[in-house]
Amino acid sequence: MRESKLSTEKRNALIVNNKKISELLEENERIIESAGFNPPIDNFVFLEDDEHALRIQVPKRYIRSKNYFMKEYDLMKICDGNIDKASNIAYSLEMSDFNNFILNRIGIYGPVLAMMYKQSTINLVSIMEMFVFSYIETMRQRCKNCPVNKCCEMRISKNHKRNRFQDQISIFKEIDLLEGISISEYNGICELYDYRNHIHLGKSTENEFTKDTHSVEQHNEAMKMLKKINTAMKIELDADVSEFGCRRFAEKEGSVTTGSCF
After folding, report:
1. Neighbours of 4 (CB within 10 A)
2. What is the mean pLDDT of the chain?
3. b/e for 148-181, b at 16 or more Cβ within 10 A?
4. Which one-letter DSSP state was computed for residue 239?
5. Is 67 found in the same domain as 42?
């Protein structure tokens, strides 16, 4: 999130509009209450023919489309052509846009804001997890079909088929699976995953609000790492592998030919 660079005129226009919008939202709630409803406990039912008109609409283009994310994140390639996996990642990225809208456009405070950061960060880490598992399976298939896999020390074999996220990350570190990701960043990814695993309220050992467990800094770190992981994956998947199985083998062996491996 960048610092505001709005002109004074545009800033004042937003303030005036936000005041009007907030007043209209309050008026809507009074209309609903005057009809005998008690939201949020008791809300009226939308009829199909007027549902769109009776709901507040998120601004057009704020939530980017599934097709946008499929292309921007190269999801079909990361998921080795699995349309269901790629689509599910795209849907979660769309949810991330909606969370972004709420966090940046709605004035929420205190425990609710902390829980919003928690919910949004967990979604980002879940996307990160799906990236890791899908990508390593895609690279495993590349290694399996690579003509130099028998002599490549960096290949991903069936022995690397581990189920825990931390184990998958250890594979990334062992064989330099992602270019440009440092050891400290790998450790940061695992810390974010540990954070995600504290979603279960029954396992909470501290007050999530007063302990400042959920913050904008952690949320932004998750977003930054998600983008960096995706960029590194695209570099790997887009590398020229016409002579060798992958970028890593080509860079390390340089002049080695396929025939010399067997």
Report:
1. 8
2. 83
3. bbeebebbbeeebeeeebeebbebbeebebbeeb
4. S
5. no
pLDDT of residue 87: 97
Contact at 8 Å (CB) between 245 and 138?
A: no
Within this chain, do residues 101 and 184 fall inside the same structural domain, yes or no?
yes
Distance CA 155, CA 145 (A): 11
Report the pLDDT value the prediction gives residue 55, as an integer from 0 to 100: 86
Put residue 212 in one of left, alpha, beta given phi > 0 → left and psi -120 to 50 → alpha.
left
In terms of residue numbers, what domain contains 9? 1-57
Exposed, middle or buried by CB within 10 Å (0-12, 13-18, 19+), for 246? buried
Q: Is the peptide bond before 147 cis (omega within 30 degrees of 0)?
A: no
- The pLDDT score that the predictor gives to residue 255 is 38
Phi, psi of 42 (to 5 degrees): -130, 115
Q: Which of 208, 26, 189 is nearest to 115 (CA)?
A: 208
Output the pLDDT for position 251: 55
Length of the chain: 262
Q: Are residues 43 and 70 in the same domain?
A: no
Indicate the pLDDT class of residue 209, thresholds 50, 70 and 90. Answer: confident
39 and 68 fall within a common domain: no
Task: Give the count of alpha carbons within 13 A of 91, CB side only.
Answer: 6
Could you give the number of structural domains in the chain?
2
Q: Is the pTM of this model over 0.90?
A: no
Neighbours of 96 (CB within 10 A): 20
Reference 218, options 127, 130, 119; nearest CA is 119
Report whether 80 contacts 136 (CB < 8 A).
no
Report residue 259 as tokens. 């025939």
Instruction: Give the three-state DSSP class for 38.
Output: strand
